[in-house]
Amino acid sequence: MTEFSLSDLENIVRERAHSGDPESWTAKLFARGIDKAAQKLGEEAIETVIAAVKGDKHALVSESADLIYHWLVVLGISGVPLSDVLRELEGRTGRSGIAEKASRPKG
């Protein structure tokens, strides 16, 4: 198996986003805008949770792939590069998750 990364997928999403290809789900999501893309992200998140709770590993893998794809579409439509998210995650690695969460503004 070749090494496939989230950056590779982000590049594919970017390339297909404005391709105008009528067969491209990515192009259709970008054309429909953030509301539709965010809705799909939410649906995939729920399906991923259901697969995890059921203990269905095959479905969990499949739904996780759908979730990550739709998350990257939402980031792309929003103009947020994956590198920003990775930088945020990297910044959190030096402290505990509990301390990081406690430091967030309330509200």
From TrEMBL:
GO MF entries: ATP binding; phosphoribosyl-ATP diphosphatase activity
GO biological process, one term: L-histidine biosynthetic process
Domain of life: Bacteria
Pathway the protein acts in: Amino-acid biosynthesis; L-histidine biosynthesis; L-histidine from 5-phospho-alpha-D-ribose 1-diphosphate: step 2/9
GO CC, any one term: cytoplasm
One family name in Pfam for this protein: PRA-PH
Keywords: Amino-acid biosynthesis, ATP-binding, Cytoplasm, Histidine biosynthesis, Hydrolase, Nucleotide-binding
Reaction(s) the record says it catalyses: 1-(5-phospho-beta-D-ribosyl)-ATP + H2O = 1-(5-phospho-beta-D-ribosyl)-5'-AMP + diphosphate + H(+)
Primary location group: cytoplasm
UniProt key word Chaperone: no
Subcellular locations according to the entry: Cytoplasm
PANTHER family: HISTIDINE BIOSYNTHESIS BIFUNCTIONAL PROTEIN, HISTIDINE BIOSYNTHESIS BIFUNCTIONAL PROTEIN HIS7
Family: Belongs to the PRA-PH family.
HAMAP family per the UniProt record, alphabetical: HisE
The protein's name: Phosphoribosyl-ATP pyrophosphatase
Organism: Mesorhizobium sangaii
Upper lineage: Bacteria, Pseudomonadati, Pseudomonadota, Alphaproteobacteria, Hyphomicrobiales
